[in-house]
Each structure stands twice: as structure tokens, then as C-alpha cells.
């Protein structure tokens, strides 16, 4: 991507005309450019643009629009899918063909307001473990990323007519951590990290739902791990409700993400480095991919 080489100048065609973008192209490359605007037609800075090759499904360019809503990338010749998204707005997708030595006229992409999904009916919703995953990604010092998950947990969502009063609680069995390497997993369970003998559970209890537009929410709450409690915010995307599953139960789904700093929970990675212990890095990306079942007298708990 050649954003650093981009020269931008506005067209003399008057207000509303597409900008004239020019880019010094590497030999054999073509260029894609777009101007992203909001529902009122105003330039939208900070919109996320992802360009993916259709043949390999690899991301060829990724970035955000500048304060004028502009984005441009130099690309090898080929066919691409372009996804443009911004918080609270409906993503826009299009396909484009790139030719060597050619810069396409910049596309004007107008993002529309996102449709708010209907919220789950009030009541208690219990996590369905076979269809729920609690995952994490951490960078191993000096090596690639470590991917792991927790296999034993319980949790639920209590939905009230006023979402501000709704609550979520999750309890994770810390000893159920797994990364696919038995030696590493045992070390993660040890006193150097989670110390599961003294702190067997990781708990999250929400304090507030904050609506961000469209299907986006921030779920504020308290995370307790390794004997320490900290306030965290989960960036949450509500995926809707559906009748499905074993007995056509009513289900809802959501995807929540957060970045945790291990030293906030007294997991001191610097001291372990000083002792020569190979550790994961100081930050951990946490992801909860949740499917919950509506609790009724007929289905008091999710199936085993």
C-alpha cells in the first residue's frame, strides 16, 4: 500500500465532485481509490477499508480514510473485493478489477445508517457451551502469536425492558485453559501465570450496556482474575435472535472483544523475562463468541 506517497488535490468541478487523486505507481501496479461519505454526504474520516484478492482471499490492502474521507492503495493487477465500514453504519461491499499502469477514477462510497436488530425478549438467557467459545490471542515473546481458549465456563444474560438495567455474568474455570501445547498449558496454570490452585475462576460481571449505533454496543463491567479486579469494556456486536438448535429453542448471539493488559492483573511478565522464562507478551486479545438460549420451564438449562 502506498498511502505515504499519495498526493491529493480537489477537482475543480465544484462542490460534490469526486476528488482527483493521483498516485506514483510502482512498475506493474494499478491503483484503487475511494471517497467515503456519511449518510448526510459529508466526508467520513476513520472509515475502515479492506481490499481482498478474490482469487487467494488474502488481504491486499487495509487502512482507514483520512479526515477528508479519502483512501488509496497501489495494487497488483487482478480482481478484488472492497469492504468499507464504520461504526453505526451499514458496511458497503463492491468488486473492482485492477489493471497495471492504470488508476481507476475514485469511487464515491456512501455509507447508510445501520439497521438496529430487534433486541432479545426480556428474560434470562443461558450460554450454550457447545455453541459458545471463549478465545484469546497473545504474542509469544520473540515468536508468533499464541492462540488459546477456555473449555469450561458458565454464563448468562438477564435482559430487562430497559437495556440499561440488563446484566451479563461469566465464570470461567481457569484450569481449562488450552493452547494445544501441554507443557505451555501447565505453565500457564502455574503460579507464574494464572495460579489456578489459588485463583480457580475468572469472573466477569457487567455494570452497564452502552449503545454505539447499529448492532454495536460497549459492555462495561468488572473482570476478576488472579485475585485482582479491573474495569473493562467489551466491544460487542449483537448478531440477532433465531429459533434453532436441538429443539428449535429461541437463541441469541453476540461477539465481544477486549484487549487486556496482563500486568493489570499482577501477572508480571518483566520479572519472568528477567528470570529467563519464555512468556507471552504483555497484552492479550480476548474474544467471546456467545450463543445463549432463552430459559423457560421447558428448557431450564442448555443441553449437555
TrEMBL record:
Residues 124-293 form the Lipid/polyisoprenoid-binding YceI-like domain. This is YceI family protein. Transmembrane segments: none annotated. Residues 1-20 are annotated as: Disordered. SMART domains: YceI (SM00867). Residues 1-12 have a biased composition (Basic residues). It comes from the Bacteria. Pfam families: CarboxypepD_reg (PF13620), YceI (PF04264). PROSITE patterns: PROKAR_LIPOPROTEIN (PS51257). Gene3D superfamilies: Carboxypeptidase-like, regulatory domain, Lipid/polyisoprenoid-binding, YceI-like. Belongs to the UPF0312 family.
